[in-house]
Design goal:
By secondary structure, the protein is an alpha/beta fold. The protein has one domain. It is built from 2 helices and 11 strands, in the order βαβββββββββαβ. The N terminus is likely disordered.
Length: 144
């Protein structure tokens, strides 16, 4: 486990499962660039930020809740494991991106491979956006 002093740290990058501890000790800007496995419900409060860079992901082995009230940023890639219940607070994101939950455009699928139904991933994005009221489908030539 890495240790940090919230007094001297502006940004904290890590790849272990200490996300909850970082929030508890007051680290304000958290950047994830690897897979982080959470083992409890987590709240990212207002005034904090969470960025998941390409290659990064938050996942869990059991169903847990991740509530994000601070600023959130990620690209058009899957960043949340399928067992996490994500809730975006008002102002945390402009819109919930379906790709964050694993939805793929039809142009990204391998033809003939099972698993091209993104209903569950799209529903998870919709559920996460209760306070955001906006779900984003990246533009591709073919739909989801």
């Amino acid at each position: 486990m890495m240790s940090a002093s919230p007094t001297f740290m502006d940004e904290y990058q890590f790849s272990d499962s200490s996300l909850n501890n970082l929030v508890k000790i007051g680290v304000r800007d958290i950047v994830i660039s690897d897979t982080v496995i959470v083992e409890d419900d987590i709240v990212i409060p207002y005034g904090h930020s969470l960025e998941i860079r390409n290659g990064g992901m938050i996942t869990s082995l059991e169903p847990y809740k991740l509530e994000i009230y601070g600023n959130f940023k990620a690209g058009n890639v899957m960043v949340f494991g399928d067992k996490l219940n994500i809730i975006f607070g008002a102002g945390s994101v402009e819109r919930a991106n379906v790709t964050w939950f694993g939805a793929l455009a039809d142009t990204q699928l391998v033809i003939g491979v099972e698993g091209d139904d993104d209903t569950e991933q799209i529903q998870r994005a919709i559920n996460s956006a209760e306070f955001v009221k906006n779900v984003f489908f990246p533009s591709y030539r073919v739909g989801f």
